[in-house]
């Protein structure tokens, strides 16, 4: 399975889209069993969540519960603590959130909310044939975003040059180090920025799944 995840913005207004593809599957070679179940669970949970995004009708925690029910129907698990965020101008992780499969701590901390007309959300559903638990890999991430409104006087020239280039080109949108003309210099510059919380890394995760 391969997940293709794309995002774009026009003047800070953001749109994202993702699609999961099973390599080699076709009308003549259909998937079945657990693979089919997990695909159907993710798709139907997403469709249900979208239909519940109605002004003043449902709360975010009700969507959390319905995602769990859809997963149970297909005998799979939502990936723990995965968040769907409100999209605002120049902000990919807005204040309103929908959490799936929360732990006790996360469930108590999530702010309950309803939805308003013309709000935009990125509905991100991840399902697993395993327990739905993730683990952080040792792989070094190459995707970052500038932390809002945080200022620090960097000491290294390479760090200052990297931060200036990243802010001028990407603002507070996520970006990959591969997009810099001098990737090696970018990898050097991002270290001090991350150490002082000027840049938020998008860590690489894996999750446990049954075969």
TrEMBL record:
It comes from the Eukaryota. Gene3D superfamilies: Creatinase/methionine aminopeptidase superfamily. Residues 1-99 form the Peptidase M24 domain. Pfam families: Peptidase_M24. Belongs to the peptidase M24 family. This is Peptidase_M24 domain-containing protein. It comes from Gongylonema pulchrum. The lineage of its organism: Eukaryota, Metazoa, Ecdysozoa, Nematoda, Chromadorea.
């Amino acid at each position: 399975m391969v997940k293709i995840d794309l995002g774009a913005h026009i003047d800070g207004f953001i749109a994202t889209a993702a699609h999961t593809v099973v390599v080699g599957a076709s009308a003549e070679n259909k998937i079945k069993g657990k693979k089919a179940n997990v695909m159907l669970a993710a798709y139907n949970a997403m469709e249900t969540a979208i239909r519940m995004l109605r002004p003043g009708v449902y709360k975010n925690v009700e969507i959390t519960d319905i995602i769990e029910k859809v997963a149970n129907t297909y005998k799979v698990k939502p990936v723990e603590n995965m968040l769907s965020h409100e999209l605002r101008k120049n902000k990919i992780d807005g204040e309103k959130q929908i959490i799936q499969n929360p732990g006790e701590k996360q469930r108590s901390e999530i702010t309950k909310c309803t939805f308003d007309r013309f709000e935009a959300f990125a509905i991100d559903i991840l399902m697993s044939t395993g327990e739905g638990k993730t683990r952080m890999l040792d792989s070094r991430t190459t995707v970052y975003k500038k932390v809002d409104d945080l200022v620090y006087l960097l000491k290294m020239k390479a760090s200052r040059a990297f931060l200036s280039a990243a802010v001028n080109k990407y603002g507070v949108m996520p970006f990959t180090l591969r997009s810099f003309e001098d990737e090696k210099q970018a990898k050097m510059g991002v270290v001090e920025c991350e150490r002082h919380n000027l840049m938020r890394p998008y860590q690489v995760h894996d999750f446990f799944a049954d075969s």
